Amino acid sequence: MSARPDNARPSDLTRVGLLGGMSWQSTAVYYRRLNELVQARVGGHASAPLILWSVDFAEIEALQRADDWPAQGRLLNDAARRLEQAGAQAVALATNTLHLVADQITAAITVPFIDLVDVVAEACADYDTIGLLATNYTMTSDMYPDRLAKYGTAVLVPDAAERDFVHHVIYDELHQDVISDESRARYRSIMAGLVDRGAQAIVLACTEIGMLVDGSDAAVPVLDTTVLHCAVLTDYIVPGALA
């Protein structure tokens, strides 16, 4: 992907609609990173032209506990439609787990949907096996195994007790902006266990996990889905980057 010329004008930028609030902490990371990347790419006083629809995560979380995924899809279907009506030229979902209802999002829009899972799958193509850390909903679903299978990449997840711990930290700590050294140490141990089982890279497949651990916490490459997604979103925001 080629870089945008330094003399690009802000008026040349593509407006992206961002479905966020799942949680607001990770959405704030998206917002800051996208603006930093666009300014670095374009220069001057440029910033990312975004339209943000931030949901009330309490409503989403209650529907998740009730196992009502169609209702979550309806909420995001409506939000995506409103983003396009507001002028979004592409739509992205700033969370991994809710990509389980991505079909309901894409059904609402005619503009491109920049799919996070597709971005991550492509980034994993050079690995035979990756270890996945995410919410329990994501780790126990076929979403990542199915999407990575077309690249010949297998997916390892922690055992049940470790999955519960990873999920607990996401929902009860990171969603509350709590960063714990004890939880970081346990995550490191879980990541090491995945490496011992054959993982050649670790995918942080929840947008909050990068708040707790990063590439310094494992003996293999660590792929943060937020970082990967924001890089591709920047290529959409700055025209010419995909040429």
Describe the structure.
The chain folds into 2 domains: 10-117 and 228-237, Rossmann fold (3-Layer(aba) Sandwich), CATH 3.40.50; 125-224, Rossmann fold. It is built from 10 helices and 7 strands. It has helices spanning 24-42, 57-65, 69-85, 102-106, 116-123, 136-139, 143-149, 160-172, 181-196, 225-237, and strands spanning 16-20, 50-54, 90-93, 129-133, 154-156, 201-204, 222-224. The strands form 2 sheets. It has a 4-stranded parallel beta sheet with strand order 5-4-6-7, sandwiched between helices. A 3-stranded parallel beta sheet has the order 2-1-3, with helices on both faces. Strand 1 (16-20), helix 1 (24-42) and strand 2 (50-54) form a beta-alpha-beta unit. Helix 1 crosses helix 10 (225-237). It is globular and about 45 Å long. The model is unreliable at 1-8 (pLDDT under 50).
CATH second-level architecture of the largest domain? 3-Layer(aba) Sandwich
- Biggest sheet: strand arrangement: 5-4-6-7
CATH topology of the largest domain: Rossmann fold
Radius of gyration: 18 Å
Q: In CATH, what is the class of the largest domain?
A: Alpha Beta
- Overall structural class, as computed from helix and strand content, comes to alpha/beta
Instruction: Specify the overall morphology.
Output: globular
**Average pLDDT taken over every residue:** 93
Percent in helix: 40-55%
As a percent range, the share of strand residues is 5-15%
- How widely separated are the two ends? 7 Å
Encode the helix/strand succession as letters.
EHEHHEHHEHHEHHEEH
Q: What is the total number of structural domains? A: 2
Number of distinct beta strands: 7
